[in-house]
Specification:
- The protein has 540 residues and is an alpha/beta fold.
- Helix content is 37%, strand content 24%.
- A hairpin with a 2-residue loop joins strand 9 and strand 10.
Length: 540
C-alpha cells in the first residue's frame, strides 16, 4: 500500500556563529491514511524539527541537506513557498503545543478560525463566519464562543480552537506537536478522544508528537522513536513499548512514570525532622469579581475554604482537573494574590496580612518555580546573571560572595560551569528548568511552591528533574507544595496528596492511600484518565 506521507533519510542542520548543528540525520517516517503515528524521543532528538519540516516551516537558520518528504507521492522539498502555502492548511495541518502563544490575543477566536477558510478560498466572509462557528462546535466548543477572545477561555478550550483551525481545510494529515502536555489528565483525555474521533470520521492521518509514552501506547497504532536526529526504532505501539529492541527505547520505557512507581528516595539522609509543621492554611478563599456594571452578580470563587498543612522536609502534592484552583492556591501561598478570606501561617507566624519588609523577608523563605522556565527567565541575561539577580535583589553578600554562591547553586542542580555564560535561548527545556530551580534555592528558602515544573519535559529529562528535587529536599531540608496534573509523577515524589475540585479539597491523605485506594469519585476519575503503558497481557 502506498503511504499517504513518507519521510526518507531527511537531514537538517542549524547554522549559526559556531559550527553547524545536525538536528536531523537520516530521519524516517511512514504514515498511512487514517493512521495515528506517535513520534517519541528525548529533548533534542529532532521531533519538533521533523514536524516543522513536514509543514515547510523551518526557521531561516535551518537548512535541509538531503532526503525527501512525500505527501501523496509529491516531494514537498522541491516546492517553492507559494506552492507550500497552498498545501499547508489544506492537505497538511498543524496543531502547535502552546495555544497561548499560537492564538492572536486581540482577535476573537471565530475570526481566527474563519481566516483559514478565507485564505484558502473555501468560503467568503459571511460563509467563513458561519463555517467557523460550526467548526468550533465540531471541536467541542459552543458556537456562541466564536466571539470570545483567547484569554477568556481555559487551556483545554484554547486547544480546541487550534483543533478547529487545523480541521478547517479538511486536511489529509494533521501534525500535532505535544497538543496536551500542559493539560490535566481528564481534559487531556477529552481532547485526544475528540481529535481521534474527528480524524476517524474524516479519514485523516495524525502524526502525534509526544513525550508521554502512555499517550503513545493508548492513542497510536504505530510508534517512531527518535534519538539524536535519527529514527532508531519503529513498529506497532503494542510491540515496540512492550518489547523495545533499541537501548534508547528501553531507556525511555524504563524512565516513564506510572501509578505503580515507587517513591523516589535520596542517597543522603534527610536534614529535616518529620513532624515539624512549617506551613498551615486555614479556610483559604479567593473570589474574583466579574466584569461590567453587574460584576457583583458574576463573581467566581476559585478557592473555597481550603485547609492543609506542610511539614518541614515534606512534599504535599496538589492535584485536580483544569480550573480546580491549583494555581490560584499557589499564588496565594506566595502572596502574589490576596486571599478573600482565611489565613496562612508560616513557621508559627501568620503571614496573611504581611506588608513591606515583613513580606519581603517572607518572599525570601518561600519561592515559586513556574511551569514554563522560558517565560520566567529574562532572555537577555546569562545564566550567571540570572542566578545572581535574586541574591542582589535581597541584598545577600558582596560581589565575590555572590559569585561563589552562583557557582555553588549551579553545582547543586548539576548545571555545567560551561553553561553559566549562555542565555536561556541557548539551553534545552530541562537545562532551563534547572536554572529556574537554582534561582529559587539561591536565597536559601524553606519552601518551594512548584507549579507543574515537569509537565513539558520528556520522560528521561523529567526523571532527572524529579531525582534532583528529591536530592535537594534531603540535602537542604526543603518543603515542597508540588502542583501537577500527572498523577504518575505525583506518585514518585509526594508524601501526601490533596485533590481539589471546584476550589475545594475533596480528598487529602498519604500518597500511598489516595493513589492506591481513592475514596472520592473525583480522584478515581483522575486516576482512570491517566494514560499508561500496558503489558501485552493487559492489552488482551
Amino acid at each position: 500500500m502506498t503511504p499517504l506521507l513518507s519521510v526518507r533519510d531527511l537531514r537538517v542542520s542549524y547554522y549559526g556563529p559556531a559550527a553547524p548543528v545536525a538536528a536531523l540525520d537520516g530521519a524516517e517516517l511512514t504514515v498511512h491514511s487514517g493512521q495515528t503515528v506517535a513520534i517519541v524521543g528525548e529533548s533534542g532528538s529532532g521531533k519538533s524539527t521533523l514536524a516543522l519540516s513536514l509543514l515547510g516551516l523551518l526557521p531561516p537558520a535551518a537548512r535541509t541537506l538531503g532526503g525527501e518528504i512525500r505527501l501523496k507521492g509529491r516531494d514537498l522539498l522541491v516546492l517553492g513557498d507559494q506552492a507550500m502555502r497552498a498545501i499547508r492548511g489544506r492537505e497538511i495541518a498543524f496543531i502547535p503545543q502552546d495555544p497561548g502563544v499560537s492564538l492572536n490575543p486581540v482577535v476573537p477566536i471565530g475570526v481566527q478560525v474563519a481566516e483559514t477558510l478565507r485564505i484558502h478560498g473555501l468560503a467568503d466572509r459571511a460563509g467563513a463566519r458561519a463555517a467557523a462557528a460550526e467548526l468550533l462546535t465540531t471541536a467541542g466548543l459552543p458556537a456562541a464562543r466564536a466571539k470570545s477572545y483567547p484569554h477568556e477561555l481555559s487551556g483545554g478550550m484554547r486547544q480546541r480552537v487550534l483543533i478547529a483551525i487545523a480541521l478547517a481545510g479538511r486536511p489529509k494529515v494533521i501534525v500535532a506537536d505535544e497538543p496536551t502536555s500542559a493539560l490535566d489528565v481528564t481534559v487531556q483525555a477529552q481532547i485526544l478522544d475528540h481529535l481521534g474521533e474527528l480524524a476517524a470520521e474524516a479519514g485523516t492521518a495524525v502524526v502525534l508528537i509526544t513525550h508521554d509514552l502512555g499517550i503513545a501506547a493508548e492513542r497510536a497504532e504505530h510508534v517512531v522513536v527518535m534519538y539524536r536526529g535519527r529514527t532508531v526504532e519503529s513498529g506497532s505501539a503494542e510491540r515496540l513499548l512492550a518489547h523495545p529492541r533499541h537501548s534508547h527505547t528501553r531507556l525511555l520505557v524504563e524512565a516513564a512514570p506510572s501509578l505503580n512507581s515507587a517513591r523516589l528516595t535520596a542517597d543522603v539522609p534527610p536534614v529535616a525532622t518529620p513532624g515539624q509543621p512549617l506551613l498551615a492554611v486555614h479556610g483559604l478563599t479567593k473570589t474574583f469579581p466579574g466584569s461590567g456594571w453587574r460584576a457583583h452578580r458574576h463573581r467566581t470563587t476559585a478557592v473555597d475554604g481550603v485547609d492543609f498543612t506542610v511539614d518541614r522536609g515534606e512534599t504535599l502534592a496538589l492535584v485536580g482537573e483544569s480550573g480546580a484552583g491549583k494555581s490560584t492556591v499557589a499564588r496565594l501561598l506566595v502572596r502574589l494574590e490576596e486571599p478573600t478570606a482565611g489565613r496562612i501561617t508560616f513557621d508559627g507566624a501568620e503571614v496573611t496580612a504581611l506588608r513591606g519588609a515583613g513580606l519581603r523577608r517572607f518572599h525570601r523563605r518561600v519561592q515559586l518555580v513556574f511551569q514554563d522556565p522560558f517565560a520566567c527567565l529574562d532572555p537577555r541575561f546569562t545564566v550567571a546573571e540570572l542566578l545572581d539577580e535574586p541574591l542582589r535583589g535581597f541584598g545577600l553578600g558582596d560581589r565575590a560572595t555572590r559569585r561563589a554562591r552562583v557557582r555553588e547553586v549551579a553545582e547543586q542542580v548539576a548545571l555545567s560551569p560551561a553553561l553559566l555564560g549562555r542565555r536561556p535561548g541557548e539551553l534545552s527545556g530541562g537545562q532551563c528548568q534547572r536554572v529556574a530551580i537554582a534561582r529559587a534555592i539561591a536565597v536559601r528558602p524553606d519552601l518551594l511552591v512548584c507549579d507543574e515544573p515537569a509537565s513539558s519535559l520528556d520522560v528521561s529529562v523529567q526523571a532527572q528533574l524529579l531525582r534532583l528535587l528529591v536530592r535537594l529536599q534531603a540535602e537542604l531540608g526543603l518543603s515542597y507544595v508540588f502542583i501537577a496534573h500527572d498523577l504518575a509523577v505525583v506518585r514518585q515524589i509526594a508524601d501526601r496528596v490533596a485533590v481539589l475540585r471546584a476550589g475545594r479539597i475533596v480528598e487529602l491523605g498519604p500518597a500511598d492511600e489516595v493513589l492506591v485506594a481513592p475514596a472520592d469519585p473525583c480522584t478515581r476519575e483522575l486516576m482512570s484518565a491517566v494514560p499508561r503503558i500496558r503489558s501485552r497481557e493487559e492489552s488482551r
